[in-house]
Design brief:
single chain, Ig_E-set, Immunoglobulin-like
Length: about 270
């Protein structure tokens, strides 16, 4: 009986210490953001926890090297502003700015999903820039660690043989969630085969660090019109996958992408209107 009681007390103490440590990390994380924010946005005010931006991410990630996130930006009916940019930030990553997306056209609604590396317990932030210059942010604290240094899932030789191969596919309209206009947009998923080496991963044979090599630019067009362009960093996961909303006009979708070694990749799809 005594042993069982000791075990229960030990488990309770360990759980309390874990919760306390996680809470301290979450509190201290604001210091990282306050130091980082001026480098990315200068002194521009940012509307925190903005109702215009919704970010979904797991509280505790199953795989720190592939943390799924989804962002919705939806302006109220009749709002004359448009969505111009979306910046994704992982506060505690060695290179915190994961990607910046610039949207074409008069976008009042944007839905975008991707997978990120998270190196240690950190806030993930989505900051939308509107046509009036206003910045609106949503954030989630994610418990994950080691994502930037996690070994690649594929053998390097195999990964480099398939580098740049693309797949574009149409996704069924989403009918769940809060039924915002953004969530009802037609969506495409773009997948690019690429190891996206972060520069922090070690070759398991040579025990040397693998040089950074990652997809750093993507441009998606619908006919001659820009859907979005992206500038990315090491925080995008291996084999980058981006799910995005678009207007199903029937015009062909064309993708141009490139990586830090100067390789160029392209793909196309003609979805039905």
């Amino acid at each position: 009986m005594r042993n069982r009681l000791r075990l229960v007390l030990a488990v309770a103490l360990f759980s309390a210490l874990t919760v306390s440590a996680a809470g301290a990390q979450e509190a201290n994380a604001e210091e990282s953001w306050n130091a980082l924010k001026p480098d990315v946005f200068g002194e521009r005010p940012i509307a925190d926890s903005s109702p215009l931006v919704r970010l979904d991410a797991p509280t505790r990630a199953e795989d720190a090297a592939m943390v799924p996130i989804t962002i919705e930006v939806a302006l109220p009916e009749g709002d004359p502003r448009t969505v111009k940019k979306l910046t994704l930030i992982v506060d505690e990553n060695p290179a915190p700015v994961a990607a910046t997306f610039t949207f074409g056209g008069e976008r009042h609604d944007v839905t975008l999903g991707t997978r990120l590396r998270v190196n240690s317990y950190s806030y993930i932030r989505a900051i939308a820039e509107l046509s009036d210059g206003g910045l609106h942010m949503s954030e989630r604290f994610v418990k994950a660690s080691g994502g930037c240094s996690a070994p690649a899932l594929k053998d390097e030789e195999v990964a480099l043989q398939n580098i740049g191969k693309m797949k574009l596919r149409v996704l069924e309209p989403t009918k769940q969630g809060d039924a915002t206009k953004a969530s009802r947009f037609s969506q495409l998923q773009l997948m690019i085969r690429h190891p996206n080496y972060s520069g922090l991963q070690m070759d398991q044979v040579t025990r040397l660090y693998i040089p950074a090599k990652f997809v750093d630019n993507i441009e998606v067009k619908q006919g001659d019109d820009l859907v979005f362009s992206m500038v990315g960093g090491i925080s995008l996961s291996e084999d980058p996958a981006i799910q995005f909303s678009y207007e199903p006009s029937g015009k062909a979708i064309h993708v141009d992408a490139g990586d830090t070694d100067g390789r160029k990749f392209e793909g196309a799809l003609k979805p039905a209107s």
